[in-house]
From TrEMBL, chain A:
Protein family membership: Belongs to the BRK1 family.
UniProt keyword Ion transport, yes or no: no
Keywords: Coiled coil, Cytoplasm, Cytoskeleton
Protein name listed in UniProt: Uncharacterized protein
InterPro entries recorded: BRICK1
From TrEMBL, chain B:
Stretches assigned to the CYRIA/CYRIB Rac1 binding domain: 62-218
Protein name: Protein PIR
GO MF annotations in UniProt: small GTPase binding
UniProt cross-references to InterPro entries, sorted A to Z: CYRIA/CYRIB_Rac1-bd (IPR009828), Cytoplasmic_FMR1-int (IPR008081)
One GO biological process term: regulation of actin filament polymerization
Pfam family, one: FragX_IP
A single cellular component GO annotation: cytoplasm
The organism's place on the tree of life at top rank: Eukaryota
The species this protein was found in: Punica granatum
Signal peptide residue numbers: none
Amino acid sequence: MARAGGITNAVNVGIAVQADWENREFISHISLNVRRLFDFLVQFEATTKSKLAALNEKLDTLERRLELLEVQVGTASANPSLFNT
Amino acid sequence: MAVPVEEAIAALSTFSLEDEQPEIQGPGAWVSSESAATSSPIEYSDVSAYRLSLSEDTKALNQLNTLIQEGKEMASVIYTYRSCVKALPQLPDSMKHSQADLYLETYQVLDLEMSRLREIQRWQASASSKLAADMQRFSRPERRINGPTITHLWSMLKLLDVLLQLDHLKNAKASIPNDFSWYKRTFTQVSVQWQDTDSMREELDDLQIFLSTRWAILLNLHVEMFRVNNVEDILQVLIVFAVESLELDFALLFPERHILLRVLPVLVVLATSSEKDSESLYKRVKINRLITIFKNDPVIPAFPDLHLSPAAMLKELSSYFQKFSSQTRLLTLPAPHELPPREALDYQRHYLIINHIGAIRAEHDDFAIRFTSSINQLLLLKSTEGADVEWSKEVKGCVYDMVVEGFQLLSRWTSRIWEQCAWKFSRPCKEFSPIESNEAPTSFSDYEKVVRYNYSTEERKALVELVSYIKSIGSMMQRCDTLVADALWETIHAEVQDFVQNTLATMLKTTFRKKKDLSRILSDMRTLSADWMANTSKPETESQSLQPGGDESRANFFYPRSVPPTAAQVHCLQFLIYEVVSGGNLRKPGGLFGNSGSDIPVNDMKQLETFFYKLSFFLHIMDYTATLGTLMDHGFLWFREFYLESSRVIQFPVECSLPWMLIDQILESHNAGLLESVLIPFDIYNDSAQQALTMLKQRFLYDEIEAEVDHCFDIFVSRLCDIIFTYYKSWGASELLDPSFLFALDNGERFSVQPMRFMELLKMTRVKLLGRTIDLRSLIAERMNKVFRENLEFLFDRFESQDLCAVVELEKLVDILRHTHDLLSKDLSIDSFNLMMSEMLENISLVSYSSRLASQIWSEMQNDFLPNFILCNTTQRFVRSSKVPPAPVQKPSVPYAKPNFYCGSEDLNSAHQSFARLHSGFLGIPHMFAIVKLLGQRSLPWLIRALLDHISNKITTLEPMISGLQEALPKSIGLLPFDGGVTGCMRLINEQLNWGKKSELKAEVLSGIKEIGSVLYWIGLLDNVLREVDTAHFMQTAPWLGMVPGPDGQIVQSHEGGVSPIVQLFRSATAAVIPNPGCPNPASFQTMAKQAEAADLLYKANINTGSVLEYALAFTSAALDKYCSKWSGAPKTGFVDITTSRDFYRIYSGLQIGYLEESARGRPNNYEVLGDSVAWGGCTIIYLLGQQLHFELFDFSYQVLNVAEVEAASVSHRSPHSSQGWEALLEAMKKARRLNNHVFSMLKARCPLEDKVACAIKQSGAPLHRIKFENTVSAFETLPQIGG
């Protein structure tokens, strides 16, 4: 019966596994930090978006007020005679 | 200059990234870099490195995995298959000749679809044979190759599942055979001209058999498997594995659990239908265990809207598998629709989320707290330098435990939703929902029966709650993904190392010392996964830990390394453990770990088992984000392909869509707690769209979802805005009710508003929807701006359709709206109310002073108020005269609006309406307040000007009439003789006052005078109100402007350093703040100080406002000056002319006695036509013409009264009957005299005639007081004119 557990060259495998652990430590370290960078970017985007939204809101309000002022000035300048007396 | 990675990354966290937005939506964006450890990303090519002779197994495993992938794609093709035949056009009769072309086209279209089906048929044949071959190869008793590994077993199970699903779908989709038969028809039509169609025909027949045979795939698989008679062993192993995994239910997440549940019946059928002894299965697995499993889950979800039932499946399969039909115990299991009512109720209790939601809520709260606290611990640990190793291990272990628990919770909850759906699909609602009873109950589709009417209100609520729990826990875990990753890896590493270095070492030394072959396996396990050097960074303990087992009493101590084992390592470890416990023998009786025949001690067995199952869970944890994604995926709630086909419609209406039903439920419920979860159902849409694109890979599904989401989101926003507006409106309205009154009221709570929170929703600037980001806040703000304007518009419309008395109601409603605006603008930035108000009033122009409201009030006064209202001097009110035939006034009908355009709720509406009703019948002081408040300083002068012009116009129109009346009077009228008594006087008067032809002018003149009087009295009321308002204003501003009462009661400016207190205050504040270096913005303080000076100037100029009434009287007097010569014949002699009849007072006197007589003669309506304002008008004109004394001396009625007095004094010795019959007239005369005296005294006070003074308004708007000026109308030109 072919039994499992036939690691043919146990010592070599052991050394390779050990090296593998170390290599992978390096890899997972790098990949985790890359992910953290991504995370930061995502979060940064979110924050920026909400700040832009706040800014947009203020601009909207200002825009409407400006529109109103424009109309008011328009009414005034359409009747210059009123201001000449 | 290399910066260490950690430092660089850590530096990022110093950026301040505050985010205003609350987390009330599931995560929309995933950053997942894991290489999906649950299925090895490199197809287990690294397994060979461990030299376990597993290459055959790995090859087979990868083959199966490829098949699984392909099979899943096939399944999604079938699942999303929609009938083509339904879309085929019918040829009209006129085009019958081109029928052949149509057949060809149809054939070509269908051929494409049918080629896919043919592909599926071919694929399933090859998959079955490959699976069968695989099983046979790995289950030979004389095994020459290693395997099958546990991963391999899983792949077999999964492939079986895929085949089963395909079969199930093929059975369920009726449109496929339909399309096929159409295809065959067109083929026979088209192929007539073709040669050599036999092979195609054969192929078609094949396909037809495949498509029309139920369970064709399973039957085919059965045939393939039992070609060689040795797959029973592996089938039994699979059954044992499935049963044990299900019973243990530790390492299974719900997708795997569902796979096992689906596959198990098929496995049982296959295993018992072999030629050999079918009972051998039950020697390894007791039949009761199987029955328990089948009974526990009578319905298993298979596809989003398709479920499987083991009992029903077993029954159906028994007719295809002869041998199996003898298994009576399994066949007597009731299918879901056959369940006896009591059992069905039990299952219902189990399946419905609503029965568990309490426990789930507690679990959620508890878990959320513990998870957060463990994360906090981790953060603390990370910020501590040189932390204790033990502590660090404990904290990280705790995080690991929490993650495991979280996955299990999420898995349990999501599977609850899946299972509830399956249960609901298996039991369509029988009785129809009473809410929609008005609809014809016959028109319900099947899908409506299983979804729309199958979830009660409470069930929907529970579902929303559960989905939001899952999403919130999920996104909480998702957010700290990169934070916990290394802690998790470290813990997993530690667990593995602890097992291989310590536990295995102990085992090797004790129990397995004698068994060479088993101990070899164990040492192989150590070889392939032990990390002996993990502690190289800590050399001081190196010697200790490098000697495994050097110290018997002490376990190996190793330093953590944050690296998880690879998928291949886990794969190999599981394989080896399985080898140890099974001895490499598939035939070994008993279960996996539960066999008693083994020579491994129970204790070790237990340890091996625990580690074995832990290993399979490690894979899920290593797949952190991917696992979370699977566990939080609720996309299945939308899909309904199966029902779409059976209902023969293109798509169901949005009301049938479960996500929308949930949104609808939340919006309907007005439940403050649920409202914050209102965005969660949109996550379901996100998930479905994701599934449509990535799993089902069908663009049309995505398009349908997108269309639905677009539609739903629009409705959602508009309804949400409506709710928000209504809520704030009712809140505002209820705050404006008198609180003490409400307190005293029994049912006062009807008028209070249930508090709700919209803050969180109003902060949502980034709603994630199908990959788009939507600024919900700005959408709401936009709509709110619109709705406020619409509301104002409506209020003005409403006012325009009512009379002037409604101005109080208008003012109240505008007030409520303003308060609503105040409340709302705390949470949302919307346009200022004044801006909206002036926009809706149409008075933003700088050169126009009129406004919509002012001109409405004016036209209302002109057309309705002045002609139709009469004054009552005593009550100071104008009321509508009942006697004046109402002048036909064209008014728009009262516009309809929802309750939230009034006060919000119905109760509040009625409360405020009953208040408004009090003021709807008259016009008095409250109305003046309302007008002053609504028109403000801007439009009020315009209105006053309009009124004054009205007076002057009236005088002009009266002038010719009065001249006419003057002509009708005799040239001279003497004093009344006393000797005739009252009767004689009256006779004489009647003789003299024979107006002749001009008598019809009388009424007109009287009503003209009445209008003038009304206007003057109205202005008088206005004056009173303005005084009050000004006084209040003055009280508020005086202290700031430094006004103090002087010794004589006059106002004195108290100047300290020449400036008023407000200027002083801001100046000193500025002076104090600016030198301070911490002051962020010194310029703004300087601006403030400047503005204080401006305010000082502006308010000081407004301190002494003039009287409107005095102004009006002066104006009237000026207007009368033109007619002075006509209406008062200046005596040439310089003496009082007794007999003149040209003076105005004569006319008025005549008119007055005329109407007094009429009213005394029993025609009382005269008073009701004219009211008291005639006296006001007449007396004012008389007074301003300087004829007051003349009038008091020579008025007919006064003279009559004098006569009557004398008569009364001598009544005792003269004829007692002389004044009889005149009492009523005398009484009326006395009343008129009293009224006239009142008016004169008022006029004397307000407009002293000696020096004609009045106030004027300078060009700048500042009033001039008590100046002397020439009375001409042009002096009053400063008031804004109509049309100006």
